Amino acid sequence: MAELTERAILTALSAVQDPDRGRDVVSLGMISGIVVRGGNVGFSIEIHPSEAERKEPLRQACENAVRALPGVLSATAVLTAERQRPQASEQQARPQQAQRPEIPGIAAIVAVASGKGGVGKSTVAVNLALAMAQSGLRVGLLDADIYGPSMPRMMGLKGKPEAGEGRTIRPMENYGVKTMSMGFLVDEETPMIWRGPMVQGALEQMLREVQWGDLDVLVVDMPPGTGDAQLTMAQRVPLAGSVIVSTPQDIALLDARKGLNMFRKVDVPVLGIVENMSYYLCPSCGHRAEIFGHGGAHETADQLGVDFLGEVPLHLDIRTHGDEGHPVVASMPDSEHAKAFRAIAAKVLDKLGNPASAKPAPRIVI
Question: 232: closest CA among 256, 207, 203, 260?
């Protein structure tokens, strides 16, 4: 079988013509961001914003052309476009919620976000998702960090997702949580050199063209910061609320405020703030050391008028078990740090109406 290369994909796509321009999509420079992993192929088709609906048949034709290549298991094309900023009058005339169509089968979507990287946001997202699943909920986990996906490793998942009905794909699953990540489609060490519109298209596709099934909660591990990817999720996804993660020190809290204010500006409820790496408890002598300070997130929550959801200690087990694909909520359910995550998850669920309140709470133990 011939090797599946970018050149082979471009050759196949050169047979697809844009009917509006009378030339093939490759010579028109419309194809970009080709990613190949095993037999799974993804790429972007760049169009003008006004052409989105009209170019849907072209997108399907491109997918079919690539899918016909030997060795291709799935082909996913995303229409991307630089969106023009609407005038102020247009923004007032169009309700924000109208841009957030519901995702069938998903009752609530919760974003776990931070203003900066390095605060343990992904660790919090994973353990919150597992804690919710342990309470009896049907839970999904979306890794929205396109440039630095970490969910495959943290969830102990390897391999590639299978193609589903139509042009959908099936999420992978472990610990009772359905998971989707760009990390399933590209090698761990492959950099994602994508522009903003390509990232936006990929995020929407991972949300709307994945067979999530019926979920009580979809936890979204947001990328750090307040850029294109974050705005895409905040403005175009029906988020039930957001959880802000920070460490206690002042510089992290400054960035946490930015993330919180971003959600407020796009009318997404802020469910509260989590203080991660709140303190270090020596496993040998029991001495408590507040390495990064302590209580800053709680104080910031009070100042900004949002709830403080809880604090998570800095502990070696949280890091090592996460790196090994065995999050502490699943692998060490009786530990103090696992209890901290479950307490935070309970507060989040309470704010969402807690659909698990009448269900038993099975425990997932390795």
Answer: 203
